[in-house]
Amino acid sequence: TRTPVNVTVTGAAGQIGYALLFRIASGHLLGQDVPVKLRLLEIPQGVKAAEGTAMELDDCAFPLLQGIDIFDDPNKGFEGANIGLLVGARPRGPGMERGDLLAANGGIFKPQGKAINDHAADDVKVLVVGNPANTNALIAQAAAPDVPAERFTAMTRLDHNRALSQLSQKTGVPVSEIKKLTIWGNHSATQYPDIFHATVAGKNAAEVVNDEKWLAEDFIPTVAKRGAAIIDARGASSAASAANAAIDHIYSWVNGTPEGDWVSMGIPSDGSYGVPEGLISSFPVTTKDGKYEIVQGLDINEFSRARIDASVKELEEERAAVRELGLI
Ligand code: NAI
After folding, report:
1. Does the predicted TM-score (pTM) go above 0.95?
2. Which residue is closest in CA terms to ligand 1's atom 8?
3. Residue 23, SS3?
4. What are the tens digits of pLDDT across the range 24-35?
5. In 10 A of CB 217, how many CB atoms?
6. ipTM of the complex
């Protein structure tokens, strides 16, 4: 029998946590043959609700779930963690400026990065979901100098999945036949969903769509502003779809991408495609044996270049702001 994988989830008592934990425990994060131990990290006020969720997890009698522990101390929560899902974050409150938001999140992600550095397993893989995800990942990474930088990633898979679904609806082709779509840049309204290299039932997606106005005025803003549209409709932010994307992100990273396709991940840039080194920006990646690689050699047209650059500029501004705050 295999040794269980330790999965630490922060913000476990939140709405994404509630949608996420049951799918981890039922084997969707890593695979149906991989036992897991859950380590739930909350703030003290969240512990009781996390205990309630743990009771429900017990009541599912999941065969792969080999234990649940609950913590309010990151040093304990990340002990032995093989996978860290950093979901809990400080939301933007009324009248809060970007600097305040970044500072408040620095107070969460810096100590968590340090706890990962000091206590996680050597093979730890980290996904930051909590917003602003890319820059929170940068903060955690900077606090973990002993962990290889590439282990810190940010989630743009929800954006990727949203784009797949929109393109499927436009073309009438099922998502299973859409490949090589890319989200570039920041997980924010400046993100750029790129269909110029995507294929729809084997044909170039941009040519199948053949409608630049739809691309610029419908597709891109619909994907980029989907989070706000969900809040409008549901009265609460995306939770199950965000949890699903977190599952997809880790599953792809650990188990590999299929031949002839790729996924989008927010990862530290190596300078590819003119994205300054070290920024945690979304790229097209393939994965194999638990490692990812940026897809190289894609031709970036003028339409794409301007949009990638705008999103990357925003990431540079966020990096400058957290530098100024002494968070990295
Ligand atoms: P929520 O407010 O329902 O839950 C957040 C939980 O985190 C709360 O239980 C809170 O007690 C906990 N928490 C706060 N600080 C913590 C800390 N220092 N350590 C451990 N736990 C802590 O929020 P929800 O809906 O679950 O969303 C979580 C985050 O995910 C938000 O930042 C949201 O903006 C982000 N998000 C990101 C998406 C993406 O695509 N990257 C998509 C959707 C949401």
Report:
1. yes
2. 14
3. helix
4. 999 999 999 999
5. 11
6. 0.98
